[in-house]
Amino acid sequence: MPRSRFSGSLTTPKVDVAIDMGNPLLNLTVDGFLKIGTVAATRVVAEDAYHALRKGSISRNNLEHTLKKMCKEGAYWGTVAGAYVGMEYGVERIRGASD
């Protein structure tokens, strides 16, 4: 069973997270999932914060709905990005060249 390591660094404006799963395909796939999933969840927060400010009120139901929407969008777009990055890596390995 492969060991996994997690390391991260924070320098403005770039956040870099490196996850070593022991396989380059898994490394790239998980990295793509986390990066794009985070962007999607942040987009949901920004949209819902804007709507809450325009409406002028925030309720517990709105917060729960936002959290649920963050998880759904993050998982969806993260999965799409992970699949794309994994397929791109696989095609590069098969072709033997990168674009």
From the structure above, extract its key features:
99 residues; alpha+beta; 69% helix; elongated
If you had to describe this structure to a student in words, what would you say it looks like?
This protein is of the alpha+beta class and 99 residues long. It is 69% helix and 14% strand. It has a two-stranded antiparallel sheet. Helix 1 runs antiparallel to helix 2. The longest helix has 36 residues. The radius of gyration is 17 Å and the shape is elongated.
Summarize the topology.
Elements: E1 5-11, E2 14-20, H1 24-55, H2 60-95
Antiparallel strand pairs: 1-2
Helix pairs in contact: 1-2
Question: What proportion of the residues is helical, as a percent range?
Answer: 55-70%
Radius of gyration using CA atoms only: 17 Å
Which runs of at least 5 residues are low in confidence (pLDDT < 50)? none
What's the overall average pLDDT, rounded? 85
Shape: elongated
Proportion of residues in β-strands: 5-15%
Coarse structural class: alpha+beta
Q: Going across the biggest sheet, name each strand in turn.
A: 1-2
H and E string? EEHH
Number of helices: 2
Task: Give the strand tally.
Answer: 2
Summarize the structure.
The protein is an alpha+beta fold and 99 residues long.
